[in-house]
TrEMBL record:
The lineage of its organism: Bacteria, Bacillati, Actinomycetota, Actinomycetes, Kitasatosporales. This is GTP-binding protein. Transmembrane segments: none annotated. It catalyses: GTP + H2O = GDP + phosphate + H(+). One of its GO terms (cellular component) is cytoplasm. PANTHER family: COBW DOMAIN-CONTAINING PROTEIN (PTHR13748:SF62), COBW-RELATED (PTHR13748). One of its GO terms (molecular function) is hydrolase activity. Residues 236-329 form the CobW C-terminal domain. Pfam families: cobW, CobW_C. Keywords: Chaperone, Hydrolase, Nucleotide-binding.
Amino acid sequence: MSSSDKIPVTVLTGFLGAGKTTLVNHILTAHHGQRIAVIENEFGDIPIDNDLVVNTDEEIFEMSNGCCLCCTARTDLVEILHSLRQRDRVERVLIETSGMADPNPVAQTFFVDDEVAAHYALDAIVTLVDAKHVGGHLDAASRGAGGDGVGHQVVDQIAFADRIVVNKVDLVEDEDVRALETRLRGINATAEIITSSHADIDLSAVLGIGAFDLSHTQAVDPGWLDEREHQHDPDVASVSVEVPEALDRAALEKWLADLVERRGGDLYRLKGIVALDDHPQRFVLQGVHRLYELQPASSWGKEPRSTKAVFIGRGLDRDELTRGLLGCVAPSTS
């Protein structure tokens, strides 16, 4: 097949909490007139991201086996892509990687598997950057802290990008954004950099841009198609907690405020679907380090009301987090 006949694929990468799911929602609700299949990969054993994606007619595929696409789950990715080829209605594929993923092996998939390469074209690797928090990770990488740790994962995601979206610029000053752009240029001199708040961008800047250049990638790293061992920082883990009862909002907010005050530096990501005893709607919990918000979402309908939360960070205590959420159960349901 010629490149123009292949299904274009956009890979969204970026560290935990950078705004990938928000951008996915922005894409799915925009009037682009295309049938888009979304493949999501989560770093954890409870699927949350699918609940955070808006209700659409698009195909949504979850990969929440506790691994990321750069590890063993890449076989699952190939199988999904093979199955999608049988669906004539799919016009574009959007892959949202785990915040812990190395984008290199994801990109390799479109060149090392013959069937995938014959029917899909990698359009671009789009990396989202959290304008408020990325500096700390880059500092850690420049100090050589952590070996294969978080800072180096963030640097890899930036270095491999075809386009960089500096998100959450509303949380920092203009001079901080300019300084960050200069710093990003030191890591990736060729990718176009755009800025956004709440991942609200012109979709023509990230979709159908034909930015992935295989010859350039091989010139920079001649061995990039070689299989390489990928290791995550062993101190970073995902803790999932489920509570079958509704929670008391005041108790939950008090506990969250205390949690982020004490552990915010090590709490890279917090996300969840929450049932509150005084409200008929779901609430979406989103957090990064010491920032978090609890916002109403869709109605529960006939689905049992329960709370699912995922905490991703360094040195997290599963028992402590479980006790904390259970301590927020509303008195009428405990």
